[in-house]
Structure formats: C-alpha cells, structure tokens
TrEMBL record:
<feature type="domain" description="Alpha-ketoglutarate-dependent dioxygenase FTO catalytic">
    <location>
        <begin position="46"/>
        <end position="407"/>
    </location>
</feature>
<feature type="compositionally biased region" description="Basic and acidic residues">
    <location>
        <begin position="198"/>
        <end position="214"/>
    </location>
</feature>
<dbReference type="GO" id="GO:0042245">
    <property type="term" value="P:RNA repair"/>
</dbReference>
<dbReference type="InterPro" id="IPR037151">
    <property type="entry name" value="AlkB-like_sf"/>
</dbReference>
<feature type="region of interest" description="Disordered">
    <location>
        <begin position="299"/>
        <end position="335"/>
    </location>
</feature>
<dbReference type="GO" id="GO:0040014">
    <property type="term" value="P:regulation of multicellular organism growth"/>
</dbReference>
<dbReference type="GO" id="GO:0035516">
    <property type="term" value="F:broad specificity oxidative DNA demethylase activity"/>
</dbReference>
<comment type="subunit">
    <text>Monomer. May also exist as homodimer.</text>
</comment>
<dbReference type="GO" id="GO:0016607">
    <property type="term" value="C:nuclear speck"/>
</dbReference>
<dbReference type="GO" id="GO:0006307">
    <property type="term" value="P:DNA alkylation repair"/>
</dbReference>
<dbReference type="GO" id="GO:0008198">
    <property type="term" value="F:ferrous iron binding"/>
</dbReference>
<dbReference type="GO" id="GO:1990931">
    <property type="term" value="F:mRNA N6-methyladenosine dioxygenase activity"/>
</dbReference>
<dbReference type="InterPro" id="IPR024366">
    <property type="entry name" value="FTO_C"/>
</dbReference>
<feature type="compositionally biased region" description="Basic residues">
    <location>
        <begin position="1"/>
        <end position="13"/>
    </location>
</feature>
<dbReference type="Pfam" id="PF12934">
    <property type="entry name" value="FTO_CTD"/>
</dbReference>
<dbReference type="GO" id="GO:0005737">
    <property type="term" value="C:cytoplasm"/>
</dbReference>
<keyword id="KW-0479">Metal-binding</keyword>
Amino acid sequence: MKPRQRKQYFRNMKRSDDSEREKRRKRWRLIQELGEQRIPYLSPADPGFQELWDSSYAGLALRQCSVLPDGLHERVQSALITLQRRGCLLRDLVRVRDRDVFTAVSRALVGQPGYTYRYLDTRLFAIPWHCEGEEGQKDENGKPCCDSDLRDACKAFWELNQFFCSDVRPQTNARGVKRSRSDTENSEDTPGEGMCEESVKDRLLEEKQEKEKKEEEEEDSSQGCSHSSPLSSTPPPNVGRLVQFNITLINYMDPTVMTQLKEEPYYGMGKMAVGWHHDENLVPLSPVAVYSYSCPAEPKNEGVTEKDGQGQSKDKEKETETEGEGTCKEELKEEREGLEKEEVQKEKACWRVGLKVAWDIHTPGLALPLQSGDCYYMTDDLNRTHQHCVLAGDMARFSSTHRVVQCCTRTLDYIQKRCSEALENLQTDPEKNTKSLKSLLPSTLQHTEDIHNEVEFEWLRQYWFQGRRYARFCSWWNKPMEQMEKDWKEMERMTQLLLDVVEDENTAQENRREMADVLLNALTDRQQHRQTWRDRCQSSLAQTLPAEEAPVDRPYWSNEDPDMPLPFDLSEIINRVESLLWRM
C-alpha cells in the first residue's frame, strides 16, 4: 500500500472526478423521483417566506447595503470596475466530466499573499491585497508588485474583508437583517468560524470533512435523496474566535453576453448564471461572505425595472381612486393580482441567490433578491447541507465572495516547505562536485517522488496553464515560481539518480526491487499527467484564447535537451524499469 502522503496527494487529484460521478448519480435519482413536477420555492412576496427561512435556511443571513461603513461602497465598487477595465477578470478554462469548458463567469482571486484557491481542477493564484498602513507588497526587486490603481483596488477588498471579519460574530443562533416583504425585520449578527492556523489542524479538519461527506453519501444511498430538513451537524470548532477570511473570489457576470444560460431545472426559478453547488476546499463549517453589486448598465431586455414598476403602481393607484366606491370586487382582485405579478417581475429583474436543501424534493427552495450593495452570509453548516445557485438579473453584476480556504495545501509557504523536504535528500560531494541521494529508504524515496509530482502538476503546470495573465497584472508570483521551477529541476536530477541506483547491478537485490517499485509508480503517474496537461494545452478551446491568456505547456523540453537529466517523454524509461522488475 502506498504511504499516506501519496494517498493524500492523489486523493486531491481524483476528488473532482469522484465528486462529479456522485453528483450525476444523485441528480439522476432526484429527477426520477421528481418526475415532471416542479418543487415549490418561496420569494419575499410569498406567504410563509420568513417562516421557511427561519426553519430550513437559518444559516443564511442578509445584511442590507446600509450596514456598511460610510464610503466603503464607493471604494469597493470602484475597485470592482478597475479590475474589469484592466482586464483582470477572465473566464477560467476548467475541467468538468473529463473535458475542458469555459466558465460563464469571469473571475480573479484576491487575498493573502501566497494563497491559492482550487476548484474544478483549476488553481487560481491570488493577487495580494494591500493592508492599511503598509507600503504594499513588493516583488523580488523591491518594487511594488502592482501599479497604484490596482493597489488601491486590492486595498478596498481588504477593507471590505476587515468589515466582514468583524461583522460575522461567533453567536450560533444569531442572524443579520433579513429582507421580508416589508423589508423591516431586524435581528442580531451572524455566527462565524475561526480560520485555520496550522497545516496539521487543517489536515485533521479536511479528513473529518471527508468522513462526514462519506457518511452523508451512505445515508443518501440507503434512504434515497429526500430529506425533510437539513442534516444535523456538530457545532463549529473554536466558535468563540474571530473569523479571518483569507481570500475573496471576484466574479463578474453580464447577462447580455451570457447567451447560453440554463433554466433552473427543479423549481423553475429562472435563468442561472451559476448552477447548484457547494463551495469547495474551505475550512469545515467556516462562513462565506458575499458582497453583491449590480452595475448601472442597460438591461438586456425591456423587462419591468424597479422605477417603471413604481410608476405603473402609482398610475394604477390613481385609477383606483377615480373609480371610487363603484369598483367591484372582481376588479380589486385583478388589481391585486396585477400588482403581485409586477412584484414578481421586479424580483426577477434583480439578481437573486437561490438555496435548497441538498438532494431534497420536499423542502421548498428559497429565492432571495439582492439589491445592489447587499451582502449575505452562509454560516454554520449551511454550505455542507445545502446548495446554492445564482439567478441572473437584467443588469450586469459583480460579487466579492470572501472565504476561509484550507491553508494546509493551498499556500506558497506550504509548497516551499515541501520542496525543502524533498531536497533534503540530495547531497553534493564538495571534492568531486557530484550529487547523490542521502537515503535510499523506500519511504524516503516515495516521499520525494510524491513531492516531485505535486510541484509539477499542482503548481507549475497549474500556473502556466492560465497563460501569462498573472505577470500582466502583478509581478508578485514571478520570483517564487522561478525558484519553484529550479527546485523541480533538482527533483528531476534526484529521479535520475534513483534510476541509476535501480539499474546498477551492484545494488542489493531486495532493496533494488522496492526502489524499482517506487520509481515505476512515480514515472507512470508522471507520464500520464504530462500527457493530460499536453492535451489540455492543445485543446480546441485553448487555441481560441489570445496569446497572453493561452495555456503554456511548461515545463516542456525536447528529449535531447542537455540541460535536463531526464527526457520529457518517460515511456522508454518506464519500459526499462518494467523489464528490470520482470527479471527480478
């Protein structure tokens, strides 16, 4: 059996595929059980909306635009527009069901320096935000990594992040302002969750989350996909601690250019800009905070706007007054129905967040309209037990979605430490100026080769697959990725040294076989993943991107490159090691 570190790495590589298969299985069962029916859902205009929110969606909290400090709206909205005008917001080429697709939403990641966020087999690298009182993040030459406009924009996101960190309070049963039909109900702040601090704690939390997910899936398999209420959950750890959101994913959605939006399939909620999903790779039970900003752009179609709706409503009120007491009950009923329809139309002109209990066809869904500048929190275990989608409005929309991402395997600091661990097994003879491996223990060799694969496929190729977009906006990642590539080249040298030992007839037979097994597994995985990344870089969709955004197949070299210890194509070496094992 392979060591734990190896299983953890490849578990991350395969998690997306396993998750997609499980989603398809559950979706198929749900559609079969549902038939041609539509599940009901409630909006603020519907009776029982507030009761449904309190009973089945208590982890959702709405904070109206008025709660933000003076001037913060203006700074954040200006920052969002700056990112759009500078071309920082780009559609990602992601992996879904073994094929590449473009996201409908344009995105950028901003956050703690050196942080990343991984979704759909894609790792985004954060543009660092700039904290108040600091000169700003610097590149390797001591110069600011971004220009002044981008620095100001990133500082605004940091300010918004600070507000969210203080506004999400660790009070388990507290909630923020909720917009009902009258838009006047108030309660307390929302519960929060402490950020992960140590990689060991993150690993334990991640394993616990996976165990809970498996238990949930086993329960679904045995009882069907219908749950009448959210699954029970344990209280969040460190509940008394202040939340520390460490990244924000900036999204931009314009319905006028999103021509292939799908209809929401279960409730009939309308067009979806983002389909049903859980937010992934977050610290278990940590909250998510979202800022929503609808642009003052022209609507895609001539639907009823809020202003038009108000005008029509006033006109109809005047008509009712002139009719006087002679108005019959039927006409009043039609009047009320017309006003209700207008209210529904106004709601659908707004962007909305839709929520549902995961894989449940009995609990009604919830559709919450978002006015420009509104914020909402998903707290407690809402992100685990429920799914959410984004329903398109008439205008373009930005969102800033603040999260507490796992920092055990998602940061530059983490991968740099992993590189150091691997290179500890390489030594240089100062007299002969030759290199050799310190230890030939199979466990040590396995650990080194696992890190080798992780650096190449989870970092270097992920970074270059997104083209040169990061260097265009910010130089912060340039030097770290150059150093990482140098470390990776040393690991290539270490693999070549291991190959020499394995092919040496003087090596002890028993140890030789174990080392050959380790080497063969590592080379086979490496060859397979290299081919996958080559195919992705050369796909038809990748070829449609402009040069500065097009995937770069890097690291890549010819098999005859004298600077590289091993060829890019490992098939011939794999055959040699397989033949060697066959003869043993």
